[in-house]
Amino acid sequence: MPRRYPTSFPAAQQTAARSPDMAIASATQITSERIMQFTFGFAPPLIIEAAIRHRVFDVLDQGAKIIEELCAETQTSPRGLRALLNALVGLELLAKDDEARYALTPESAAFLVRGKPAFHGAFFLLTSGPMLSEWAKLNDIVRSGRPEKHINREQDGVAFFRQFVEDIFPIHYAAAQRLGEALEVSKAAAPLSVLDLAAGSGVWSVALALRSPHVRVTAVDWPGVIPITQKVAARFGVADRFRFVAGDLLEANFGSGHAITTAGHILHSEGEARSRLLLEKTFDALAPGGTVAIAEILVDANRTAPLPALIFAVNMLVNSDQGDTFSLEEISAWLRDAGFAHVRTVEAPGLAPLLILATKPSH
Predict the structure, then answer these.
(1) How far apart are CA 73 and CA 59, in angstroms?
(2) Pairing between strand 286-295 and 215-221?
(3) How far apart are alpha carbons 294 and 149 in whole angstroms?
(4) Which alpha helices (DSSP H) does the chain contain, by range?
(5) Average pLDDT along the chain, 363 residues, taken 10 residues at a time
(6) Distance between CA atoms of 184 and 241, rounded to whole angstroms?
(7) CB burial class (10 A; 0-12, 13-18, 19+) of residue 342?
(8) Contact 323/309 with Cβ under 8 angstroms?
(9) 296 and 325 in contact (C-beta within 8 Å)?
(10) What is the CA radius of gyration of the chain?
(11) CB atoms < 10 A from the CB of 43, how many?
(12) Measured between alpha carbons, how far is 82 from 59 in angstroms, rounded to an integer?
């Protein structure tokens, strides 16, 4: 069971804080170990990024190797690679036997080898570049509330998303497949219109299109990102059933009469005001009885958990003007305010363990 830490101090601890003698006694019951573990919290993503960039996981996918073999294949130094490999062993992303041979673990073999269907390395490849460069400004951003870059705006967003949007396809694909199952897309007997908002790699609509030849997609994204959506749709052989609309979400023509709208990881960068407007516009674009499906990294109602979602909220502070993470309760209220009914959730694998679905009433 994970350790849980109180959000307020018990009365005895409050007393100890006022009494030096009791404070000393109380201090003997705790250690600084947990806090000190945060000191190099930035290191694991950088270590993983370096391993991906030097093809460590790719090379070891061919079999276990000693460091001299790895150095030769990755063109790295023994001193540098040894430190990296041993840290990865400590992170349980590599194994090391008694003969000093390094090998992949099931986890790294599944998710950190380039070219594999479930490759999850895309986010790590952002660590030393756009991620840390902006997070390094956190102190100033907390003071002003205004980041220098805004990935929710086209000028900054296109350049950011073009770097990795295609690579994150595998991260969301399993959830997109689960959505198709939940909506019973494979049972469609007539044309089924899908509106894919901020389509990016097209993962949500591509997954639905692969479940049924009756799916017809309207994919909306910025002009600079649409070519990636086109490329991915073509690679999966469904581009002939896609219509591409370039433009800002609140300005682009969504069309009407859609049976399904997907909003995959959009609301957190849009912020509450734009998200509400987007949901109202989505409501109008759906046919009566149509469904909107939302994927988001959710916080609890009190914003005390889960930790990754709380950290991601800081990421939105650093990278957007109004972005945040939201709770199921908040998004559900926005949906009802926009006119939707039957708000519900579907369990799904991936970053968003709950997909949020809502229906436009038939009358």
Answers:
(1) 7
(2) unpaired
(3) 25
(4) 11-18, 20-27, 33-37, 43-53, 56-60, 67-74, 78-90, 106-111, 132-135, 138-144, 154-162, 169-182, 203-211, 226-235, 267-285, 307-319, 328-338
(5) 37 42 61 93 97 98 98 98 98 98 98 93 90 94 91 79 83 96 97 97 97 98 95 97 97 98 96 97 98 97 96 95 96 98 96 94 90
(6) 19
(7) exposed
(8) no
(9) yes
(10) 23
(11) 11
(12) 15
68-102 burial code (b ≥16 CB/10 A, e <16): eebbebbebeeeebbebbebbeebebbbbeeeebb
Question: ∠ at Cα 7 (349, 34), nearest 5°?
Answer: 75
Looking at residue 141, its amino acid is: I
Nearest alpha carbon to residue 112 among 186, 36, 167, 37:
167
User: Are residues 193 and 258 in contact, defined by beta-carbon separation less than 8 angstroms?
Assistant: yes
The Cα 294–Cα 325 span in angstroms is 13
Rounded Cα distance, 9 and 22, in Å: 14
pLDDT of the residue at 11: 39
Nearest to 355 by CA among 308, 297, 304, 281: 297
Residue 62 carries which side chain, given as an amino acid letter? Q
Q: Would you call the peptide bond into 306 cis, given omega within 30 degrees of 0 as the criterion?
A: yes
Does this model's pTM top 0.85? My answer is: yes
- Percentages helix, strand, coil for the chain, rounded to the nearest 5? 50, 15, 35
Please list, residue by residue across 205-238, b when 16 or more beta carbons sit within 10 angstroms of its beta carbon and e when fewer do. bbbbbbbbebbbbbbbbbeebbebbbebbeeeeb
Whose tokens are 């993470």? That residue is 325
The phi, psi pair for 55, rounded to 5°, reads 65, 25
Q: What is the pLDDT of residue 25?
A: 47
Given the structure tokens 């573990």, which residue do they identify? Answer: 37
